[in-house]
Write a structure and sequence with these properties.
Length: about 300
Amino acid sequence: MNRFTILLILLFVQGLLAQPITVESVKPLWSDNQKAFYHPRFGVGDSTVFVTGSGFEGLHVININNGQLTTITEARGAGYAFAQSPDGQYVTYRTQEFVKRRPVYELKRVDLKNGKISILEADKRSLKMISTGIVARLTYLDNATVRQSAISGENQILSQDDIPFVTIQRREILLWDNGEQKMLAPLGKQKYIWPSISPDGQKLLFTAAGVGTFISDLHGNIENELGYANAPQWSADGNWIVFMMDRDDGHRITASDIYAISADGSRKIQLTASQNTIEMYPDWGHQSNKIVYNTQDGRIFLMELTTE
């Protein structure tokens, strides 16, 4: 993305009067043609951004202030789902290898201060990360058993007082709420993807492939329909959803821009409007004033916002 394109984006958004969200700046965090990164996610304090390679290979972190890149691991699958401790010191991630053509998983935790790696789970045929982002306790599925691991402590069976969490199982939404397991299919038989719980723990955001994106209560009762909104992510205050509006020709993505929509579906704002750049997979910062996203060719951009 050149300076002229960035200027067009800013002029486009700032020209929309009385908008509750204004783009103040857009700047590249990573634009090295020799190394492509994808699926950016904010770290503690919004001062770092985690990125991964094609096919979720490896896990790296970019310092927003100086652009320095630090490699955490080059392991296959490490960038698919990971969690960071609230103090920023520890990162937990899952790795994947193939033994006799079957996947074998490990769950590892790294101390970013000294680089020491601890193995939490080893030689697992089925291991699925559930809670990601900044968490004090990581939740994951060991076969059909729900377990947790304090980022810097010992593993334990899930207790009854944990906050709700969701994942996809057999194309439906698996919800754990107050220790109780529920299978949800709010729109009937569909392929459900990208589920997440709102910051206040009261709402469920999800996409039904080919149908649209919705917000429901934790019983699956639809409250708001957001329309076409792929890879949706909550804002920190739960008032907005950021997403990508992508288009394809049946084989590859041909266009994509970043949008934000209010959680009630009443207001939608286009945040990027470039002609030749495909912007994808946005993530909203923990203070609601930053969004990070990748381009199709593996560059990472940081967008600064002013919100109401």
